[in-house]
Amino acid sequence: MLATHLDTFDRFINGRLGADEWTHEAHLVTCWVALSDRTPAEALPFLRASIQAHNCGIGTPNTDTEGYHETLTAYYVTAVAHADADEPEGLFEVATCSRTAPLDHWTRDVLFSVDARRGWVAPDVADLPWPIESTLAA
Fold first, then answer.
1. Residue among 94, 96, 78 nearest 86 (CA)
2. Which of 3, 22, 48, 61 has its Cα between 20 and 30 A from that of 114?
3. How far is Cα 32 from Cα 39, in angstroms, rounded to an integer?
4. In b/e form, how buried is each residue of 106-136, taking b as 16+ CB within 10 angstroms?
5. d(CA 8, CA 16)
6. Residue 4, CB half-sphere, CA atoms under 13 Å: how many?
7. Cα 46–52–56 angle (5° rounding)?
8. Which residue segment(s) compose the domain that 90 sits in?
9. pTM
C-alpha cells in the first residue's frame, strides 16, 4: 500500500521504502513529487542518482540487465510532466504512464537493450507524443 505520496517519497529518499513497495506506482509517485519543484531536466539527474542509490540500498544491483534504466526513467519523467495530474494517483489512469506504455514506442529488444539501460535510446517504433529533448538537456 502506498500510504501518502509524500510518505512514499520520504521513505524512498531516506532508504526506508522496501523492495516489495518499489512498484511501478511508487516510481510514478516519486517522479511526480520530484517534478513538483523541479523541471524535467532537473528531475532526471535527481531521480537517476536517487533510484540508483535506492536500488543499492534494497539489494538490487544496477547492472546491464537489472536495476536503473535510463531510457525508461527519461520516458516516465517526461510522461509524468506532461500528464498534468493534480495528485500522483491520477497518473495511474493516464495511458502514457502505464507500465506498458513505452512498448508503444520501442520494440522490446531495443527498450531492454544494454544501450537503453545505460543511456537514452530514441524510440524505434513510434515517436513520443511530446518532445523529450528538454528533459535530456541536463
1. 94
2. 22
3. 11
4. beeebbbeeebbeebbebeeeebeeebeebb
5. 9
6. 3
7. 145
8. 5-136
9. 0.94
Q: What cell numbers appear for 32 in the block?
A: 511526480
Number of structural domains in the chain: 1
- Divide the 138 residues of the chain into consecutive groups of 10 and give the mean pLDDT of each group: 78 93 96 96 97 95 96 98 94 97 98 98 97 86
Tell me how far CA of residue 57 lies from CA of 9, 21, 50, in angstroms.
15, 13, 10
Closest CA to 76 of 56, 51, 107: 51
Q: Residue 59 and residue 25: Cα distance in Å, rounded?
A: 20
If you count them, how many residues does the chain have?
Answer: 138
Enclosing H/E stretch for 86: none
